[in-house]
Amino acid sequence: MRFFLPLLLVQTLFLAACASSSLTSETPAKIYSYQCESGEVVEASYPSTESAIIEYKGKQHYMNISVAASGSRYVNDDLVWWTKGQGKGAAGTLFLHQKSQTGDLLETCRVE
């Protein structure tokens, strides 16, 4: 019994250290700059696999991932941001959001 108590204490401290280090070692999400056909720029970052933050016309929009047949589709109450590919040449398309469907096209963009 005396052997298991110190082992349990060491294991508990090790797990606590691992949990706290993972919370503090988050790296900031990379920002991608999408040049749009209209001349506008959409700045996008992806803090997790489930979310995106885009800046469009000086306003930030926090978005959550949604179902997509291809690519990645992020939505909020106002906009839909649909991306395909990664890095240089990746495409991003911005739409108005409607409750049951994708709304009007706002921008067609590419990472340069």
Please characterize this protein's 3D structure:
- By secondary structure, the protein is α+β, with helices and mostly antiparallel strands.
- It has one domain: Beta Barrel (Lipocalin).
- It contains 1 helix and 8 strands.
- The chain has an 8-stranded antiparallel barrel.
- A hairpin with a 2-residue loop joins strand 2 and strand 3.
- The N and C termini lie far apart (64 Å).
- 18% of the residues are buried.
- The N terminus is likely disordered.
Terminal-residue CA separation:
64 Å
Give the number of domains. 1
Structural class: alpha+beta
The count of strands amounts to 8
Largest sheet: 8 strands, antiparallel, barrel
Large-scale geometry: globular
CATH topology: Lipocalin
Residue-averaged pLDDT: 81
Low-confidence segments, given as residue ranges, are 3-10, 12-25
Provide key terms for this protein.
single chain; 112 residues; alpha+beta; Lipocalin; 8-stranded antiparallel beta barrel; globular
Quick description:
The protein is α+β, with helices and mostly antiparallel strands and 112 residues long. It has a single domain, classed as Lipocalin, CATH 2.40.128. The chain is built from 1 helix and 8 strands, in the order αββββββββ.
